[in-house]
Amino acid sequence: MTKTNPGNFFEDFAVGQVIRHATPRTVTVGDTALYSALYGSRFAVQSSDAFAQSIDYPRAPVDDLLVFHVVFGKTVPDISLNAVANLGYAGGRFLAPVYPGDTLSAVSEVIGLKENSNRKTGVVYVRSTGYKSDGTEVLDYVRWVMVNKRNEASPAPDPVVPVLPDAIDPDALGDACPLIDNGSWDADLSGSRHRFADYAIGECIDHVDGMTVEEAEHQLATRLYQNTAKVHFNQFTEGQGRFGRRLIYGGHVISLARALSFNGLGNAFHVAAINGGRHVAPLFAGDTVFAWSQVLEAAEIEGRYDVGALRLRTIATKNRPCSDFPLIDGEGRYLPEVILDFDYWALVVK
Amino acid sequence: MTKTNPGNFFEDFAVGQVIRHATPRTVTVGDTALYSALYGSRFAVQSSDAFAQSIDYPRAPVDDLLVFHVVFGKTVPDISLNAVANLGYAGGRFLAPVYPGDTLSAVSEVIGLKENSNRKTGVVYVRSTGYKSDGTEVLDYVRWVMVNKRNEASPAPDPVVPVLPDAIDPDALGDACPLIDNGSWDADLSGSRHRFADYAIGECIDHVDGMTVEEAEHQLATRLYQNTAKVHFNQFTEGQGRFGRRLIYGGHVISLARALSFNGLGNAFHVAAINGGRHVAPLFAGDTVFAWSQVLEAAEIEGRYDVGALRLRTIATKNRPCSDFPLIDGEGRYLPEVILDFDYWALVVK
Amino acid sequence: MTKTNPGNFFEDFAVGQVIRHATPRTVTVGDTALYSALYGSRFAVQSSDAFAQSIDYPRAPVDDLLVFHVVFGKTVPDISLNAVANLGYAGGRFLAPVYPGDTLSAVSEVIGLKENSNRKTGVVYVRSTGYKSDGTEVLDYVRWVMVNKRNEASPAPDPVVPVLPDAIDPDALGDACPLIDNGSWDADLSGSRHRFADYAIGECIDHVDGMTVEEAEHQLATRLYQNTAKVHFNQFTEGQGRFGRRLIYGGHVISLARALSFNGLGNAFHVAAINGGRHVAPLFAGDTVFAWSQVLEAAEIEGRYDVGALRLRTIATKNRPCSDFPLIDGEGRYLPEVILDFDYWALVVK
C-alpha cells in the first residue's frame, strides 16, 4: 500500500460524504505581511490596527481573500488533486472576522455528483466550510470541479446536481463585519471619498493600474496557502503539458483584481460574499493583470445603519487595459484577454 | 465623475497645501521578516530583540529604511503618480524609534513650486512627515519631483523654491535612538570591532559583495510599502515605454546599498538622517548592485556619550564592483555604472 | 587596515579555536510565514498553534530546518566565506524546541584541520552550536568545508581529523520534542494515517510532487537566513564563473525535500537529528526538485511512549521524478540527476 496521497478520483466521492481536511493553519501577521507584498492591497481596515480600532474593530482583520485562499488550499489534496478543471464557485459567505492568531481548518461535504457523457470524468460539487479552532465558522462556499475517473468502466452514480443561488441574499450578509462606527471613518486615511450612496447601479469603474505577475510570486502565494495543485509548481511536468508552462492559481487573479479595485472602490472594505466566479482563461507568468468592475446591485442590510452592500462584477484581463470595459465579443463570447468573471458582495461604509 | 484616482497634476498643488495621505499601515514582525528576506540586512540591533535589549532598547526597532519606505509609499498616490522624475531628497530626520505594532501614517506639505521653462512640467517640493497613531512624529524629509501639467496653457504659479540644508546639523541627530548602554555592546555579535573613533574622515570603504535583483523581489518590496508608482509593476505598459522594462523603485537600491554596507560599517547601526540622495541612473532586474562609502564627517552629538555620528556618502553601482571606488569621469560626470549617490548620517557606537 | 570582512583562510584556523558568530536573530511568525511561502510545508505541528497545543506543545514550534538555516547562516562569514566546497554534515542534534520570539545565536569550535596534498586548500572541521539568548542550546552539528589557503607556502598544521558518528544514537534523540499527548493526535488534521509502527525498514517512499525553483525564491530564503555566501546572490561574478550562474544554497534543497516528504511522511513531524548530508550536485534556478525516502532504521527512544524514531535517507533529484527511486548507476556513482543524499532521524507519532 502506498503511503503517498494519490488524491481522490470521481469514484471515491459519494453524496453526503464529509471530508475533514489537513492541515490546520494559524494565520499570523507574517501571513498578512506576505499578502501585502504579493498584492499591494491598500484597504485601510485590513492595513492598520489603529484605523480598524477607530471604527470599533478590535484590531485589523485578516484580508477576506487570504481567509478564502487558506480554506480553499486545504481542500485541494482531497477534492481537486485529480481535477481536470475548477469549474466554478457559488454561494460563498464570510461568517466571522478572522484575526492574526486564529487557526483555520476546513471540512467539505459532497453535495452533488454527475458523470460526464464521455464516461472519463465527472463533476463533483462540494460545500466547503472554514472554521476556527473554537468551532466558529468563518466561511462557507460551494465549488464544483471536473474530476477524472479512476476507471472508465466504473458505473455512474445517480446524478445529483445541487440548486445553487445566483447570489447571496443581502440579509445574509455582514456576519464577518462587526457593527462599525461609520461616523469615525476618516476618508483621507481610507483613500476614498465615495460612500455607499455614491455608487449607482450599472456604474462601471476602470481600476486603471496593471500588475505583472512573476513565477516566484504566484508560487510563494500558492505555497503560503498550502495549496498543493501540481500545475502551479512543476515546470518539469507542465513543460511537457498542454500549455508548456505553469498555470497560475486562479485565486491569485482574484486577489490581484481585488487589490487593483482599491482604485475606485477604496471604501468597499469587506468582501462579504462570493456569488459566483469563473476562471475564463489561464494566466501565465509575465502577463499583466488589469481589472474593472460594474455595480450590479446596491442593497441595504437589515439592522445595519453603518454599511451597505454593493454587488459587484469584477472582470480581470491579461495584457489589456480596461478603460473600455472589455468583456464579450459580438457573439457573446468572452474576449480572449478576459481571465476572470467574479461576482461578489462588498460592504461599503455609509 | 470618475471614482478612480487620477493623481495630482502640477496645477493641483499650491504652496502651503497640506495633504493627509492614505493608507495607515501597522508595521509588524511580518514586515521586518520580509525586509530581511529582501535585503539580507545583518545589523544586530534591528535583527535581535535580545541584542537590542542588552543595550537598553525595549526591543529590536524596525529598520529605519523600512520606516522611510512605508512613509514614502503613502505619499506616492497624491504627490508623484504623474511624476516624470523623482529629483532628490533633503533634510530627512528620523525622529522616534518605530517598533513592530506601531501604525504609520503620513502627511505632506507643499513647500515649493516652480514651473519648468518648457511649460509642460513643474517641480513640486514637499515636506513629508510620518507619524504614529498617537501623533508621535517618526520621520520627516523633503523631496522634490518633476510633475506633468494637466494643461500646457495653465498659468505658472509664482515660483517658490525652498532653501534646503546641505546636511542635517549633528545636534539635531539621535532622537530616534534611545541612550544606549554602549559598554554592553558585544562586538562579536554585532560583527564588527570598529567603533566611532576608528573611522577617519575621507576614508573609503568597499562593501565588496554584490546582489543581483529579480523582478519578483523589487515588486514584492514595493508592494509591501504600498507604493503605487506604475513604472515598477506594469510590464505591459513599460514594455512600450522608454526603457522597455519595469524600473526598480529607487528606495530598493538605497536599502540594498545599506544592507551591503554592513560589510565595513557593522556598528553604524542607525540611520539618523538623510542629507540628500540622487538616483543617478535606473536599475533593472538582472543587474547586480555593489556599493562603497566614504566618511565625509565625524561629529559628536551633544549629550551623547554612547554614540557618535558619521556622515557617509554611499555610492551604489550596477554591474561594477567597487574596489576602485567608482564615481565620476574626468569631466565630472557620474560614471555610467553609478546608480545612487546617497548622503546620510549614521550613528556608530562609541 | 581594511574594515571589510575578508573571511578566514585555512591558515586562520586552529584546532580548539572558538568563534562567536554575528548576528543574533530573533525568529518570529514573520519568518515562519516566509518559510511556509518558500517551501509549502504542511506538517500540522509547525503549521498550527491549535494542533500543537492539542498534543501538549505550548504553541507551534519553529520548523527545525528553519532553525538549522538560521544557525548555519551565522557561521558562513567566519567559516566558509572562502570555502571552495561544503563537503558534509554529521552529528547534528536538535536539542530544544524553538518558538517565535526566541533569539538565536551561534558559536563554532574548530575540531579538525587537514591540508590537502595540493597545498592550495585544506579541510576545516567545525562543531557549530546554536543557542537561545538564555543560553539554551537548540542545535549542534559538525560540518567540514574545503577552504582556500591565503598563501600556498604556509606550513601545514598537524592534521587532526575528528571521528564522527555514522548516526546519532536513538537514545540521544527527542530533546527538542516535548512529551506529546499522542492519544489526541488527529490523523485527519495531520494529513496521514500512518504511525510509527506502519513503517517498515527498507521501505521506499516516492514523494511524487515536483517543485521548480526561481532565482527570487532561493535568494529570499538565503537572505532570510542571513547567509552571506557570495555564490548565491551575485550574477555579475557567477556569470563569469564555473557554472555561469548563481548556485542555490544547499539548505534550500534540504527544505524543499523535507516539505515534499510530507506526502508519505505526514506524521514524521520533527527532525530530531541530522546524521549526515551531502550535496551531490548543484541546483540552479529553473530546475524542478523531486524527492524520495528510504526507511533505514526504526528505533524506540527510551522513556518515550509517544513517539518513535525513523532513520530516513532522503534523496532529492533535479528534473527527474522519483517513482523508480533513482540513486546510483551500475558502477556505484550517483546518477547525474541526484542532488542531495540526506540521512536524518525523524520522530513519528506512535
Automatic annotation (TrEMBL), chains A, B, C:
GO terms for molecular function: lyase activity. SUPFAM superfamilies: Thioesterase/thiol ester dehydrase-isomerase. Signal peptide: none annotated. InterPro entries: HotDog_dom_sf, MC_hydratase, MCH/BMMD, Thiol_ester_hydratase_Rv0216. It comes from the Bacteria. This is MaoC family dehydratase. It comes from Stappia albiluteola. The lineage of its organism: Bacteria, Pseudomonadati, Pseudomonadota, Alphaproteobacteria, Hyphomicrobiales.
